[in-house]
Amino acid sequence: MEDKAVLVIGGGVAGMQAAFDLAEAGIRVCLVERTLSVGGRMAQLDKTFPTNDCAICILAPKMMDCYRHENIEVLTLSEVTAIEGEIGSFKVKILRKSRFVDEDKCNGCGDCARVCPMGILNKFDMDLRVRSGAYIPFMQAVPLIYALDRDKCMRCGLCEVICGKDAIRYNQKPEIVERNVSAIIVAIGFDPLDPSGLTEYGYGKYDDVITALEFERLICAAGPTGGHVIRRDGKEVKRIAWIQCVGARDTRDNRPYCCSVCCMHATKEAILTKEHNPEAETFILYTDLRCFGKGFQEYVNRAEDDYGVKYIRGKPGEIKGKENKILEIFYSPSSDKVEKLEVDMVVLSTALIPSEGVEALAEILGTELDEYKFFKLKDPYNPTGTTRAGIFVAGYCQAPRDIPECIAHGSAAASRAMEVVLGGSYDRRA
Amino acid sequence: MKEEEVKIVGFLCNWCCYAGADLAGVSRFQYPPNMRIIRVMCSGRVDPVIILDTFLWGADGVFIGGCHPGDCHYLQGNYYAEKKIDMAKRLLKKAGVEPGRLRLEWVSASEGERFAGVMKEFTEEIKELGPIKFEKDEMEAACIAAADYSLRILATKEKELLEEGNKYGEVFTRHEMDRLLDDMVREEYEAKRILLKLKRPMSVKEIASELNLKPNVVFRHILDLKRYELIEAHEIRDNTPTYIAKVEEGVE
Amino acid sequence: MTEELRIGVFICHCGINIGGVVDVPAVVEYASTLENVVYAERNLYTCSSEGLEAIKSAIHEHELNRVVVASCTPRTHEPLFRATCKEAGLNPYLFEFVNIRDQCSWVHMHEPEFATEKAKDLVRMGVAKAARLEPLEELTSDVIPSAVVIGAGISGMTAALSIAKNGFYVHLIEKGSEMGGLLRRLYKLYPTEELAKEFLEQRIKAVEEHERVELHLSSSIKDVEGYVGKFKVILDENGVEKSIDVGDIIVATGAKELEPEGLYEYDGEKVITQLQLEEKLRREDLNRNGIENVVMIQCAGARGEVVKYCSKICCMNAIKNAKLIKEANPDINVFIAHNELQAYGEEYELYYRDAKKAGVRFLRFPLEKRPKVRKSDGKLVVDVFHERLLMDIPLEADLVVLSTPLVQNPDAEKLSKMLKVPLGQDRFFFEAHVKLRPVDFATDGIFLCGTAQGPKDIEESISQGYAAASRATIPLAKGYVSSEAIISSVDEAICVGCGICESVCPYGAVEVVETEEGRRAKVTGVKCKGCGTCGSSCIKRAIKMQHYTDDQLIAQERTAFVTEREVVS
Ligand SMILES: Cc1cc2nc3c(=O)[nH]c(=O)nc-3n(C[C@H](O)[C@H](O)[C@H](O)COP(=O)(O)OP(=O)(O)OC[C@H]3O[C@@H](n4cnc5c(N)ncnc54)[C@H](O)[C@@H]3O)c2cc1C
Ligand SMILES: Cc1cc2nc3c(=O)[nH]c(=O)nc-3n(C[C@H](O)[C@H](O)[C@H](O)COP(=O)(O)OP(=O)(O)OC[C@H]3O[C@@H](n4cnc5c(N)ncnc54)[C@H](O)[C@@H]3O)c2cc1C
Ligand code: SF4
Ligand code: SF4
Ligand code: SF4
Ligand code: SF4
Q1: pLDDT computed for residue B248 by the predictor
Q2: Whose CA is nearest to atom 5 of ligand 5?
Q3: pLDDT at residue A1 tops 50
Q4: Quick one: closest CA in C to A245, which residue?
């Protein structure tokens, strides 16, 4: 039975879709997620282009379906540490780190979080909000099981006292579990580039230069400001600009590729800003507008015509802070001109890069990466096949793609894994 | 519950508004305790008859919460909800009740704070309006009218009529649609008022004076009701015929 | 039906989460006074193993036939309590959930008295509903373990082959006389620049050779009946009518290039489309014609000219063909007049850079001022408005190539009606959910992939082909489909067959059919998702939405502020 299982690494939309399809087809799946909750990057978004669907609203039921599925074993806070064998019979070692909470007992009431005296920046909220030492990354987290932050916890013992379910385990040890699987799907997604190194944008220097993912948290009703687009000093934002291709399509750090989603997420974020505050002025500074997907051009038209979002072609050379927290963006609309735009918030559409740890994982899996550390395809027209038989890839970690493409890609990888698991075992003619 | 506390019933869809209310809870956003929540799978499930019945049974306000347009878990359910609630509001008005006592809101699963805000606002609005007052007869008539097929067809077909036109390809403007809705609601409501009156035998003139309607209007309704075999002639009294309802048509 | 109602109520303290605000013992005491309630208790955590055991033993001990739990939210805990009821031998749908934490104790923390009152009211409403609950069963129905794929372009071929490899029989239906679709007319493919012909040859062979793929060439669909698991597809194959029974269906009918009639002096000779250029390149007759200047015009007919959308592939395709021309003969000048350039992702951005290096010249025009084609002294001239110089640049051309968008096939409309699946505003097939269900239709058992869903390149068409295969394999591998237990049902004695319900159901789950009594609505259980919209729309109120029946909702609403006894009297 066990050798008919599939391992999925990464619980973002792509990984969850792959796991769900396989499980529905009756195949056992082990889903390994590095963080406390499945959901991936999409869980961090406010709305999604081009429909402005609320991201977590449509994602949460999917996360639940995955977690509850009788054929899916979700291992959170876990990482793959070794594999042996080959297609049809891989043996996988998985490190399960400690939550310091008994998963079977905790019912997610959150009492521990409320008594915990520690205040720690929450990574899920892009460090814009403080959480306790006992925490879940976000309210809709799946599974809804709290964890103690080992590094920050000072073992005061308060949570142990308050927890009515006797679920706190200060001495929980990490463990290594083994699973036998026929095929493996990698879906570890992306990280946003930290733009501090690109000094011309002043990220880290000026309070109100933020990244797009930070902006997604900022404008989210369940986010740190309750959805209010405000500057660090608490003032409402009146003029706001997005700068595209920050660190992307840029040969300086060998990142010449286009991230495929930023033109549209900037468009979305500008629309949402206008919906929150129709008085706000929104500018998008871009080089080429990538509006190729289904409904994208229509979305851009709406942003321009109905919401008054202004698109400006021109790549900024520099951002400078003035008095009163005003930011000046210098950009050149043509080769011989430099213009200036004054705003009070700048959002950087930073490059999206392969997830931290991708090289180590590729090493463990014995698969090749391409020049930019995305998983390499054996055949460019076989979009889920890595360089190793029986190991497939899905989602952003293979190449830039948006949510629906990641989902299709996740299903596609599932079908390849089904070919391995089911193939030959059925031959039922109609 | 104290005397001055107003009573509200809320119908929330499982996927968005109910989840938003949960999030308000998880985040501890406080709001007034006046509303009693009923979970439905989709706001499209909420029948105008049930809404009006809720008022009939003493609610001072009724709240319907669904997904934002385009977010409906069942694609279009919330769109139909909007039309049905519009119909219920028109009937409320007929029964002499402020339509503001009925409120439809789109609240997403991530809008916990907004849910709390909407609750505060709506409770305030209902407090402002005070306890509900209506004539039982009138609210009952509104209820039965909402159960009647003609208004139900109209509520469902509104979108089609506005966008694709009727069987003759005539597309309705918003203004024409409003007029049509008003006319139909008035007609149905009057007819149902008359039907309820006829639990005991009455003549056209008696009905006209009790309901404050023109006798020719009452007569037209009487003919219709007779045609649909909902009432029958009872006896001739002083040369004027009286009528009576055939079967006891109660609410529900 | 006349069985005596025996309701058990379990109120949870949730540690201090409920108990710290709501007076739980008072609620328990109140619950035990309610009509039909024979047992009430409180638990520190009803969801703990002790709590669940308590429910089970109470079901046995007190012969409970309805269970109400008042605790947190059904959105996380309902499955758990339902399962507990089931373990104790009670139908899981005879369970009712009351939320007194998320929507009571947590949001009225500073008004404990009101919170307690509200909790009592909510419990009363829950008990009133519980009294009217009915046992429900999930329906299942068998699945014929084979599939139909309509369209044998690259996406359909991929889907068919993958389903076959997954172990199931596939019918691949193609209206043309050969497989390959649009690719059959192409020269080389970006980004690999392999010959389309060679690319196709091996793939066609793999499909032909697979024992579980049955190919139906020169075939068209005449009719489709049935639902997921049991479709009947009627086919006209070379003039012979055939009937195929399958479990599910994939639509992979592709798209075609827009014919730019009346645009940019299009004549099919000197002003041609990219597809016509591909044919010229295939025949290698570009050099022979002594062509020196080629101008390509992007977005011809797209992005607001004829269609509103961007066609995703024409930028890359123009770059490919421009590069190929340039590399074959560096003396030919090739200009691409464009507005944006969709060189997205990893490879395409690099490919675009290569084309620049190869000497292809790029000129950007604003969308409001698209290029114009005119004849001057028998020569073609393309005026391109220069965005920065703010003036027209006249470009002489021996050949003008229009990059026109992909558009839906004209016969797609017919297919969409037969399958009862929608087309979008852009006329492409419209998937179930733009974000989450890219290759599903809202109707269960029908899927889509490739350019039938919208313009896309080969790689993405293949990705979708595999994705559709995965989705379609699920019911085949399972062998059955199960419906929700919570579905609607029609009372035929009341229904008049007006069809309103059919018009509002997004899943085609309720349809008006001829019966002996005349036209009546009928619900196909496995299709219904249980939204209840048909019920609230039915003009005769003939539809019952299980588990959320009028009766149950009215009981809840009426007992919100008064007791059941007052309602009944
Ligand atoms: C600011 C912003 C806005 C966006 N807006 C939109 C939008 O509106 N619409 C849209 O379609 N797209 C949008 N996108 C793109 C979208 O977020 C991605 O397409 C999508 O989330 C990618 O999904 P994924 O599953 O491939 O990866 P991810 O969502 O990144 O998921 C990967 C998962 O793998 C886990 N993981 C990573 N490494 C390991 C490991 N070694 N072991 C185990 N697990 C691991 C991660 O923790 C994560 O849970 C946006 C992106 C950004 C940055
Ligand atoms: C000029 C041009 C050049 C291109 N170059 C490239 C390139 O270099 N690289 C790249 O990646 N992409 C390229 N593309 C895009 C590529 O052609 C598509 O991605 C691909 O063809 C999509 O495949 P498909 O199977 O979805 O559709 P199609 O190839 O259109 O195949 C659909 C099939 O379905 C059949 N069909 C239609 N209706 C019915 C029906 N009712 N019943 C039965 N059968 C039916 C058709 O006959 C056809 O065989 C190019 C497109 C164009 C127009
Ligand atoms: S660990 Fe205990 S206190 Fe913390 S959430 Fe879980 S049950 Fe509640
Ligand atoms: S892909 Fe390029 S040419 Fe085609 S419509 Fe889009 S922008 Fe225009
Ligand atoms: S709406 Fe009601 S009456 Fe009309 S067909 Fe449907 S079930 Fe029958
Ligand atoms: S309940 Fe919803 S899904 Fe089911 S038949 Fe009615 S409208 Fe269709």
Answers
A1: 54
A2: C497
A3: no
A4: C344
Distance A110 CA to ligand 3 centre (A): 5
* DSSP state letters, C307-319: SSS--SSHHHHHH
Residue C523 Cβ inside 6 Å of ligand 5? The answer reads no
- In chain B, the N- to C-terminal Cα span, in Å, equals 29
pLDDT at B76 > cutoff 90: no
Indicate if the alpha-carbon torsion angle C142, C144, C145, C150 is positive or negative: negative
Which amino acid residue places its CA nearest to atom 6 of ligand 4? C310
C308 touches chain A (CB under 8 A): yes
- Nearest protein Cα to ligand 5, atom 2: C538
pLDDT band at B251 (very low <50, low <70, confident <90, very high): very low
pLDDT for the residue A335: 66
Whole-number Å distance between alpha carbons of C330 and C292? 10
Is omega for the bond preceding A174 within 30 degrees of 0, making it cis? no
Q: C114's torsion region: left (phi>0), alpha (psi -120 to 50) or beta?
A: alpha
Query: N- to C-terminal Cα distance for chain C?
Result: 21
C68-113 tens-digit pLDDT: 999 998 987 888 899 899 999 999 999 999 999 999 999 999 999 9
pTM of this structure: 0.84
C169–A429: do the CB atoms touch at under 8 Å?
Answer: yes
Rounded to a whole number, what is the distance in Å from the CA of B87 to chain C's nearest CA? 12
Question: pLDDT (tens digit, 9 = 90+) per residue, C339-354?
Answer: 999 999 888 989 999 9
CB contact under 8 A, A383 and C426: no
Q: Which atom of ligand 5 is nearest to the CA of C510?
A: 6
- Any chain C CB within 8 A of the CB of B161? no
Q: Is the pLDDT of residue B1 over 50?
A: no
Q: For residue A213, give the amino acid letter.
A: L
Average pLDDT for C238-262: 97
Q: C325 CB contacts (<8 Å, ≥6 apart)?
A: C281, C286, C294, C332, C334
- Ligand 1, closest atom to CA A78? 43
Q: Cα(A193)–Cα(C132) distance, rounded to whole angstroms?
A: 57
Which residues of chain C neighbour B53 with C-beta distances below 8 Å?
554, 557-558
In this prediction the ipTM stands at 0.94
pLDDT band at C376 (very low <50, low <70, confident <90, very high): confident
- Nearest CA to A153 out of A110, A104, A117 is that of A117
Q: How confident is the model at residue A227 (pLDDT cuts 50, 70, 90)?
A: confident
Ligand 6: residue of C139, C443, C491, C507 to mutate (most ligand atoms within 8 A of CB) is C507
CA C542 – ligand 5 centroid, Å: 6
- How does pLDDT run across A354-395, given as a tens digit for each residue? 999 999 999 999 999 999 999 999 999 999 999 999 999 999
User: C173-206, pLDDT tens digit by residue?
Assistant: 999 999 999 999 999 999 999 999 999 999 999 9
Give the distance (Å) from ligand 6 centre to CA of residue C163. 30
C550/B1 Cβ within 8 A = no
Query: Distance between CA atoms of B40 and B53, rounded to whole angstroms?
Result: 17
Q: For A415, which of C166, C212, C459 is closest by C-beta distance?
A: C166
Whether residue C569 is predicted with pLDDT greater than 60 in this model: the reply is: no
Q: Does C346 lie at the interface with A, CB-CB under 8 angstroms?
A: yes
Tell me the C-alpha distance between C539 and C182, whole Å.
49
Q: From the CB of C497, is ligand 5 less than 6 Å away?
A: yes
Q: Does B23 touch chain A (CB under 8 A)?
A: yes
β-strand C399-402 against C248-251: which pairing, if any? unpaired
Alpha helices in B65-173 (DSSP H): 77-94, 112-129, 136-147, 149-163
What whole-number distance in Å separates Cα of residue A221 and Cα of residue B107? 11
The dihedral region occupied by C4, where left means phi > 0, alpha psi between -120 and 50, and beta the remainder, is: beta
Query: Could you tell me the sign of the dihedral formed by the alpha carbons of C124, A107, A27, A366, in that order?
Result: positive
